[in-house]
Amino acid sequence: MFNRLLASIGIGSAKIDTLLEKSRYSPGEEVRGVVQIRGGSVEQRIEKIELSVMTEYMRESNDQKHRHNCVIGKYPVSQPFELKAGENREVPFSFQLPFQTPLTLGKTPIWVKTELDIRGAIDPGDNDRIEVVPNAAMGMVLEAVQQLGFRLREADCEYASRLGRSLPFVQELEFVPTAGQFRGKLDELEVILYPDAQQVELLLQIDRKARGLGGFFAEAMNTDETFVRVTFTQEHLQAGTQAIASQLEKIIARHA
Question: What is the pTM of this model?
Answer without folding.
Answer: 0.87
